[in-house]
Each structure stands twice: as structure tokens, then as C-alpha cells.
Amino acid sequence: MISSSPRNIAFYNSLIISLIFALTYFTLRFWYNQIPIIPGVLLTFIVFSLSYFSINYSINKFIYNKVKLIYRTIGIMRSKKKEKKIRKNIQSDDVLDIVNQVVIDWGKEQEEEIEELKKGADYRRDFIGNLSHELKTPIFNIQGYISTLLDGGLEDENINRKFLQKTEKSINRMIALVDDLEYISKLEAGELKLKPEKFDLNMLTREVFDFLEMKANENKTELVINVPQNKTINTKADKKRIRQVLINLIDNAIKYTDKESSKVTISFYDFHDNYLIEIKDNGVGIHEENLMRVFERFYRTDAGRSRDKGGSGLGLAIVKHIIEAHQQTISVRSNEGEGTTFSFTLAKV
Known about the structure:
Elements: H1 6-31, H2 38-73, H3 80-92, H4 95-150, H5 160-189, E1 196-200, H6 201-211, H7 213-218, E2 222-225, E3 234-238, H8 239-255, E4 263-271, E5 274-281, H9 315-325, E6 330-335, E7 339-347
Parallel strand pairs: 2-4
Antiparallel strand pairs: 1-3, 4-5, 5-7, 6-7
Helix pairs in contact: 1-2, 2-4, 4-5, 5-9, 6-8, 8-9
């Protein structure tokens, strides 16, 4: 098989051109004897030489530039070092093989990009669907309450205040949803800057317990801290954001402790240079296949964690973003029927 390197391509093409020229020249001499032989041989050699150098130059210049353009287009040539390597390979190896490999690599990259786009499209579709569902419920409620009032309920003192209060509640739910969406968008975009300060995590947790005490009592849930009240647990973080993390996680635990003797326990552990904080409930638990998705926006694991529990469906997603913004980690483990534990870390001081 004839090699397709630039020099060989130039040689064989030049040979063909010169043979055609020689054949033409000596055919003419056959008809016109006065045409000399020696100039014909010399001219054939000149044609061969010019053809060889012209073709070789054109292949090296124009094919290389085409290959370089392909590499730049698909993002493979990302450094001068790679460009030099490609130049060296093109000059020494089979040009067509290199182009073929480039096309193959480009095809693989396109397949990967298509898969990523499909995943992104699926996520956006789920997100829009969930958002529509979250907004639809309070909107329909408001519409129903207002329609009832307009149909004569406004004059009935037994229902007008009650329905206006329900309307207000649905409006507040929508406002909370929009605020949470705005907040999580800013977290993802890095627009909300952390303001680290030193504070006592034990004291902050007890403040959050006091804040949620009424809700815990309504749900008949016992709140327990597994450290003495006078023990100091100093950390350095954005106190306002960590307070929100504790509120979201403890509130979430209170909602799903469905047992008669419901209990939410928070514990602190030394974990190398960090504290490990665990918030545990003894509720219905989460199925294993759903554990990886609990931090997704609007994700509801099952009927036990349905929308009738309230909230925007963004609490855990916000918690995850806040913890990761502190360069820390958060995880969840659960056993169905036994409860769920959320764990996160914060730096020691």
C-alpha cells in the first residue's frame, strides 16, 4: 500500500504529471521530428521538480492549517505544547490518519455534550413542573377564597374574616417560595457573601430550639440537645446562615416525626479540625433510593413527606448550599420506620 505522507503524495503525483508531460512531448516529437530529445528530458525533469515541491508545500501548508482549524474548533489544541506536538506528528505521520482520529475524538466529545444537555433538559423540565405545582396550589386556594367572598361571603361575618385569613396564608406561602428561590439563586451565583464570626454553637442551637418550641409542642415532639448547657462549642462561620441551617433541619425533623413519642435530638462530636453536628428524628424515615435526591429543589420522597406538611420544598437545597459555601460537608442517612439523621460539619475555633 502506498503511504499517504506529504512527501510520498507529492512524489507520486509529480511522477504522474511528469509522465503525462513526457508522453505528450514525445508524442508530438513522433509527429514532428524536428523537436529535439534532450530538451524534452530536461523539461520533464523540471516539470517533475516543480510539481514535487509545489505539491509538497501545498500539502504541508494547507492540510496542516485545516487540521489545526479542526483542533481549535473542538477545543483539543489548548496549549502551545500540544500545538507543537500536533505539528510534529503531522510532519512525520500519516496526515489522513490524524484527521480521521480528530474526527473520531470530536464525535465522542459531541456524544458526551449531548448527554449532558439531555440531563440538563430533564432537570429543567422537572424543576419547572415542580415550581408550577408549588405555585398552583396557593393560587387556586386564593382564587377559591376570593370567589366565595365575592359571591356573598364578604357580607357573612362568620366566613369573611376566616377566608381572608386563609387567603393571607396562601399569599404568604407564595412569598416564601419566591424568597427562597431568590435566595438559593444568589447562593448558587455566589452573590451572597459569608460574614464569618466566632460564636457558641451550643447557645445558638438552644436559641433555635426556643424559636421552634411552639411548633414542637403542637406536634407533640420532644427537643433534646445531647450536650450540657454550660459546654462551649466555639466555631467560626456566618452565624445568620448557620442559624437558618439549624432552623431548616430541625423544623424538617419536627414535621416528619409521626410517632406518638416523637423526638428530635441534636448531638455534637469532635471530628478532627471540625465539629460534626447531627440532627436525628425518629420518624418514618426515607427509602434508600431517595436519599441521594433529598437535597434537590422541590424533591418529595413519598407520601410521608408530601406537600401537606407545608414549606417551599427548598429548605434542604438551601441548607446544602450554605454548608458547601463554608467549605464543609453535609450528608443524610436513614432507615425506613426508624428515622432520619442529617449530619454536617463546621470548623473548630
